[in-house]
Design brief:
6 helices, disordered N terminus, 277 residues, Rossmann fold
Length: 277
């Protein structure tokens, strides 16, 4: 997996800004629409204004768009007075969670965009009402687990009300993957998860992600799956870890496990996509 020469899509942003400027109503006031006597009247009026009020005459110039100052770019950030968007790592199944999911991608999004993002994770219980204060949450871990009934109901409501879930099998744990698939069937039994194609906008929001590769060679293709709710991508799941464990700090180690290469770039794309779609 390679980043496209380390460049973001600045050209695309500039095109969007230019397109927005072109949508402004141009000031095409042709002189053909006014008789010459009209300008004589304007001159007389100007003299009267100066004599009556004894102030300098203010001249207003109607400039064409090409001569006018450029419009500032449209920002996607929240208002300056608003708090930053928070991202949570979920605690679930009687306290199961993972501290080994690197938060570096939050910094990427904060630096590379105008989206205000808090650069550290918050921890929130899956069955808590506080879940609905986070537009983007991460579910990860290793080994088998079973969600409680209240967690299933809360996650279903969260996704149906517009929340976004990024799920990752820590160190590509097959037991966690199997448990998550069972849990997803409980949460949304009528919706099937499908592989997200590489041409999907999610892989090209901040960075151009090339075909996915794991750190250790595998026989099957490395894919990231997605699940839509009401036509909106609401769940992204990677059976191969997106945890970026080496950069998670502490004593985190994906020892003997496997992960997706450049996971922090993929996670930044996923977050930016989720917050702008």
């Amino acid at each position: 997996m390679k980043r496209e020469d380390g460049k973001m899509k600045e050209e695309a942003c500039e095109k969007h800004a230019a397109a927005f400027q072109r949508q402004s109503f141009p000031l095409h006031f042709s002189l053909l629409y006014f008789p010459s006597s009209f300008f004589s009247y304007l001159g007389v009026l100007g003299v009267l204004v100066v004599r009556l009020f004894s102030v300098p005459l203010l001249v207003i110039v109607l400039a064409s768009p090409d001569l006018a100052a450029a419009e500032p770019p449209i920002k996607t950030e929240t208002a300056e007075s608003s708090p930053p968007i928070r991202v949570a790592v979920l605690t679930y199944a009687s306290g199961k969670t993972s501290k080994c999911f690197a938060a570096g991608f939050l910094d990427d999004v904060a630096r590379q965009t105008h989206i205000k993002v808090e650069r550290q994770f918050q921890s929130v219980a899956l069955d808590s009402a506080d879940l609905f204060n986070f537009p983007f949450v991460v579910l990860t871990g290793e080994g088998d687990f079973t969600l409680k009934e209240e967690e299933v109901k809360n996650l279903r409501a969260y996704l149906q009300r517009g929340g976004f879930l990024l799920a990752s099998a820590g160190c590509s744990s097959p037991e966690w993957t199997a448990a998550f698939r069972r849990a997803l069937k409980q949460v949304l039994p009528d919706i099937e998860a499908k592989a997200v194609p590489m041409e999907h906008a999610m892989f090209h929001t901040l960075y151009d992600i090339q075909p996915l590769r794991s750190k250790a060679a595998v026989k099957e293709a490395v894919e990231i799956e997605g699940l839509e709710v009401d036509g909106r991508l609401a769940v992204v799941f990677s059976p191969y870890g997106l945890n970026d464990t080496a950069n998670a700090g502490g004593n985190c180690c994906c020892c003997g496990g496997n992960e997706v290469r450049n996971a922090h770039l993929i996670n930044a794309d996923i977050l930016a996509y989720a917050l702008t779609h």
